[in-house]
Amino acid sequence: MTSKKRIAILGSTGSIGTNTLDVIRAHPERFEVVALTAAKQVERLAEQCVEFKPRVAVVSDAGSAKKLCELLLAKQVSTQVLYGPDALITAVLESDCDTVMAAIVGAAGLLPTLAAAKAGKRILLANKEALVMSGNLFMDAVRQGGGELLPIDSEHNAIFQCLPVHYSKSPSQHHGVEELWLTASGGPFRNTPIAELSQVTPEQACAHPNWVMGRKISVDSATMMNKGLEVIEAYWLFGLPIEKIQVLIHPQSVVHSMVRYCDGSVIAQMGQPDMRTPIAYGLAWPDRITAGVQSLSLTQQAALNFMEPDLQRFPCLSLAFQAGKQGGTAPVILNAANEIAVAAFLDNALQYLQIPEVVERVLNTTPPSTPSSLEDILEVDAKSRVLATDVIQRLHS
Ligand code: NAD
Ligand code: MG
């Protein structure tokens, strides 16, 4: 066996981060953890450092860094502690990692993930918002850096598994692919009467029927903005026009996505709804390793159903399709407004049904442009956040 892979995990205390460590824990002969990062969950990060002894650990602010240093000193762990957004980039570039799990939630993950792309690392991409915001720029950075980009989002990981191995070398040739079918569970409110949706709470929105995930993506799954972001993510990853990317509601979350080919074949990837499967796939690719996931039993499984999404019920999905088709900075605006709206909803400062309202108003008041640099993207992101905050304030007054 060759030398161990050296892994940096951006967002190690989150749902994807802890699942990644769970897979790594079972394969100490294959993987070494060299960097771990978190925003503020210092205690959990300290426990991870004690167990995995990374070279570097990063938190978001000086107070958290001080606390982490104290906890590590007490356990005689010599991990270097850094803090702040730039330190996330340092963790990617100076920890000697060869693989980066990009699992920070939202736009906060963009810069370190982009740095990993430029540096030619193997990127395991969970942080879909980074790609939605910077699509062209990000894919160019991956090509120029010469590293590998492996999707961890279960749908995109499924599609990656269903495509020919040489697909990503020349996606523009399409290799007989006619359509991508992204499956979606429909979330906790798939059958809730629309009249009742104005009253739903963050707790109800975060209670996903099939997947256990962080709070932001759980709300996105309830509104189906998550699927909308995934359509844009698929567009960039696989180079097919948005019109060729279909969304299918599939309440059982067994088929994780499908590829339809020109010869009539449809290839699907199936499995338990457990993120450790795509994470293990990304970590070991092109090998396969155990993921700690129970095997799927189709005979014990209820029928598998598929249906078209109801766009009246899920206006966020329409907004994302609209932004994806517009292109340019429209997905940046969509993502920024959504992050602000979802944070307000989770804070009990916005009603559930007002999430699409905020996103739509911000999209309609900001004409999209063609970004020519990262600075352009960051500027549009910042402006859209201010606008979304204004819209929310006006909804209250
Ligand atoms: P989470 O909220 O559970 O974890 C987020 C992680 O990012 C935490 O470690 C947190 O400390 C860190 N973080 C948050 N804000 C930060 C900031 N400003 N600066 C630095 N670090 C910050 O989220 P999650 O569910 O693990 O999702 C992570 C990403 O993976 C998201 O982009 C999500 O869309 C994507 N994803 C998640 C799942 C899932 O099953 N959870 C599935 C597919 C894709
Ligand atoms: Mg997904």
From TrEMBL:
<feature type="domain" description="DXP reductoisomerase C-terminal">
    <location>
        <begin position="270"/>
        <end position="385"/>
    </location>
</feature>
<feature type="binding site">
    <location>
        <position position="155"/>
    </location>
    <ligand>
        <name>1-deoxy-D-xylulose 5-phosphate</name>
    </ligand>
</feature>
<keyword id="KW-0460">Magnesium</keyword>
<feature type="binding site">
    <location>
        <position position="13"/>
    </location>
    <ligand>
        <name>NADPH</name>
    </ligand>
</feature>
<feature type="binding site">
    <location>
        <position position="154"/>
    </location>
    <ligand>
        <name>1-deoxy-D-xylulose 5-phosphate</name>
    </ligand>
</feature>
<comment type="function">
    <text>Catalyzes the NADPH-dependent rearrangement and reduction of 1-deoxy-D-xylulose-5-phosphate (DXP) to 2-C-methyl-D-erythritol 4-phosphate (MEP).</text>
</comment>
<dbReference type="InterPro" id="IPR013512">
    <property type="entry name" value="DXP_reductoisomerase_N"/>
</dbReference>
<dbReference type="Pfam" id="PF02670">
    <property type="entry name" value="DXP_reductoisom"/>
</dbReference>
<feature type="binding site">
    <location>
        <position position="214"/>
    </location>
    <ligand>
        <name>NADPH</name>
    </ligand>
</feature>
<feature type="domain" description="1-deoxy-D-xylulose 5-phosphate reductoisomerase C-terminal">
    <location>
        <begin position="149"/>
        <end position="238"/>
    </location>
</feature>
<feature type="binding site">
    <location>
        <position position="227"/>
    </location>
    <ligand>
        <name>1-deoxy-D-xylulose 5-phosphate</name>
    </ligand>
</feature>
<dbReference type="Pfam" id="PF13288">
    <property type="entry name" value="DXPR_C"/>
</dbReference>
<dbReference type="GO" id="GO:0030604">
    <property type="term" value="F:1-deoxy-D-xylulose-5-phosphate reductoisomerase activity"/>
</dbReference>
<keyword id="KW-0414">Isoprene biosynthesis</keyword>
<dbReference type="InterPro" id="IPR026877">
    <property type="entry name" value="DXPR_C"/>
</dbReference>
<dbReference type="InterPro" id="IPR003821">
    <property type="entry name" value="DXP_reductoisomerase"/>
</dbReference>
<feature type="binding site">
    <location>
        <position position="14"/>
    </location>
    <ligand>
        <name>NADPH</name>
    </ligand>
</feature>
<feature type="binding site">
    <location>
        <position position="185"/>
    </location>
    <ligand>
        <name>1-deoxy-D-xylulose 5-phosphate</name>
    </ligand>
</feature>
<dbReference type="InterPro" id="IPR013644">
    <property type="entry name" value="DXP_reductoisomerase_C"/>
</dbReference>
<feature type="binding site">
    <location>
        <position position="127"/>
    </location>
    <ligand>
        <name>NADPH</name>
    </ligand>
</feature>
<keyword id="KW-0479">Metal-binding</keyword>
<feature type="binding site">
    <location>
        <position position="128"/>
    </location>
    <ligand>
        <name>1-deoxy-D-xylulose 5-phosphate</name>
    </ligand>
</feature>
<feature type="binding site">
    <location>
        <position position="230"/>
    </location>
    <ligand>
        <name>Mn(2+)</name>
    </ligand>
</feature>
<comment type="pathway">
    <text>Isoprenoid biosynthesis; isopentenyl diphosphate biosynthesis via DXP pathway; isopentenyl diphosphate from 1-deoxy-D-xylulose 5-phosphate: step 1/6.</text>
</comment>
<comment type="similarity">
    <text>Belongs to the DXR family.</text>
</comment>
<feature type="binding site">
    <location>
        <position position="39"/>
    </location>
    <ligand>
        <name>NADPH</name>
    </ligand>
</feature>
<keyword id="KW-0521">NADP</keyword>
<feature type="domain" description="1-deoxy-D-xylulose 5-phosphate reductoisomerase N-terminal">
    <location>
        <begin position="7"/>
        <end position="135"/>
    </location>
</feature>
<feature type="binding site">
    <location>
        <position position="15"/>
    </location>
    <ligand>
        <name>NADPH</name>
    </ligand>
</feature>
<feature type="binding site">
    <location>
        <position position="40"/>
    </location>
    <ligand>
        <name>NADPH</name>
    </ligand>
</feature>
<feature type="binding site">
    <location>
        <position position="208"/>
    </location>
    <ligand>
        <name>1-deoxy-D-xylulose 5-phosphate</name>
    </ligand>
</feature>
<dbReference type="InterPro" id="IPR036291">
    <property type="entry name" value="NAD(P)-bd_dom_sf"/>
</dbReference>
<feature type="binding site">
    <location>
        <position position="129"/>
    </location>
    <ligand>
        <name>NADPH</name>
    </ligand>
</feature>
<feature type="binding site">
    <location>
        <position position="230"/>
    </location>
    <ligand>
        <name>1-deoxy-D-xylulose 5-phosphate</name>
    </ligand>
</feature>
<dbReference type="InterPro" id="IPR036169">
    <property type="entry name" value="DXPR_C_sf"/>
</dbReference>
<feature type="binding site">
    <location>
        <position position="153"/>
    </location>
    <ligand>
        <name>Mn(2+)</name>
    </ligand>
</feature>
<keyword id="KW-0560">Oxidoreductase</keyword>
<protein>
    <recommendedName>
        <fullName>1-deoxy-D-xylulose 5-phosphate reductoisomerase</fullName>
        <ecNumber>1.1.1.267</ecNumber>
    </recommendedName>
</protein>
<feature type="binding site">
    <location>
        <position position="16"/>
    </location>
    <ligand>
        <name>NADPH</name>
    </ligand>
</feature>
<feature type="binding site">
    <location>
        <position position="221"/>
    </location>
    <ligand>
        <name>1-deoxy-D-xylulose 5-phosphate</name>
    </ligand>
</feature>
<dbReference type="Pfam" id="PF08436">
    <property type="entry name" value="DXP_redisom_C"/>
</dbReference>
<feature type="binding site">
    <location>
        <position position="226"/>
    </location>
    <ligand>
        <name>1-deoxy-D-xylulose 5-phosphate</name>
    </ligand>
</feature>
